[in-house]
Amino acid sequence: MLAALIVAACAPIVAPPAPAPTAVIGDRFREERRAVLDALNLARARAGVVALAYDSTLEHIGDRHCRELVADGCVGHFSTDGVPPYLGTVLAGHPGYHRQNVASHSHGLGLVPGQLNDIILSAVAEMMAETPPNDGHRRAILEPTATHVGIGLAVEGSEVRVTHELATVATRSWQPPPVVTLPGTVVSLAGQLANPWQVAAVELLWEALPQPLTREEANRIRSYRYPPRRGMFFVGEGLPGLGSSGRLYTVHADRAGTFAFAWRTGPTPGVELAVVWAHRSGGERQLTAVALGGTVVTVDGALPPALARRAALREPPAEE
To answer: Cα separation of 113 and 102, whole Å?
Structure first.
């Protein structure tokens, strides 16, 4: 049985280069991952959408999630640690605005040769066969602004989990906030977008720290969304008087695509995310989410163990 689930101007800003997405597909399951990548890009080509580049960091993120799903007996976007997909990418240091598809396969017998490829390609076909309004997987695959993907995969006996870790990556340089900080701390993000993107705004989101879930609770979650908005701040606008420099809550950007934004974390523990919104210069002014950063606020400035395990992916694991 196959179950597919988807659940403006300022001085130049100095920021380190963004993590460069690498097109190397992991040695384990290389042929299967390549087949999924080809299937996704074929679907996008038929829809007139540009092809996705491969991203090894997203692959590592997906592999970890798939392994946890198998270990916990879970089948969707959440394992029992309760960490949402977008927070996993932030903790891993990836700069892209993230979306995730998940598919699960389970039966009483072990896999026979060639069956894994059939399973993961059938999942893509089922997702592409979805019809509105219940077509979240299909819309994620065909998202016009998505630029990169990593294919997560885990196999244990007859248990298979596969993810499409899709992201919009538009950063040439990227300096995210610290991964963890104290309440009431001033934090910032900065970077530079690639042409033709121009920063227009930064949106702050907030949610409580993730809480453990039972297997049954995790498997009842069939979809997810980003947290509620705390504030939306546009280039050149802000809240005056919040800092000696006058820079807090003001988006500073220039025509070269460089930008900076600083804010003060809230008074209570939680997850604070910053979504960078941009438009294409010389074209339509429609805003697109092109980058995602964030910080985890805790009373002692230390990551809870479940989040620390995800943050360990900032140093990619060795190939198996």
So the answer is: 22
Output the pLDDT for position 12: 37
Tokens read off for 247: 């820079």
Q: Is the peptide bond before 317 cis (omega within 30 degrees of 0)?
A: no
- Structure confidence by residue, pLDDT tens digits, 164-223: 999 999 999 999 999 999 999 999 999 999 999 999 999 999 999 999 999 999 999 999
Could you give the CA distance from residue 298 to residue 302 in angstroms, rounded to a whole number?
Answer: 6
Question: Omega into 133 within 30° of 0, i.e. cis?
Answer: yes
Residues 6 or more apart in contact with residue 260 via CB below 8 angstroms: 10, 13, 188, 189, 190, 247, 251, 252, 253
Q: What is the DSSP letter of 314?
A: G
Q: Which residues contact 229 (CB under 8 A, 6 or more apart)?
A: 203, 204, 205
pLDDT in tens, 4-62: 333 333 333 344 454 455 556 777 899 999 999 999 999 999 999 999 999 999 999 99
Question: Checking phi first, is residue 114 left (phi over 0); if not, alpha (psi -120 to 50) or beta?
Answer: left
Question: For the chain, what percent of residues have pLDDT higher than 70?
Answer: 87
Q: Write out the two tokens for 25.
A: 């597909």
Q: What is the residue-wise DSSP string for 108-174?
A: SSPPPTTHHHHHHHHHHHHHHT--TTS-HHHHHHT-TT--EEEEEEEEETTEEEEEEEEEE--EEEE
Beta strand 229-234 with 97-105: parallel, antiparallel or unpaired?
unpaired
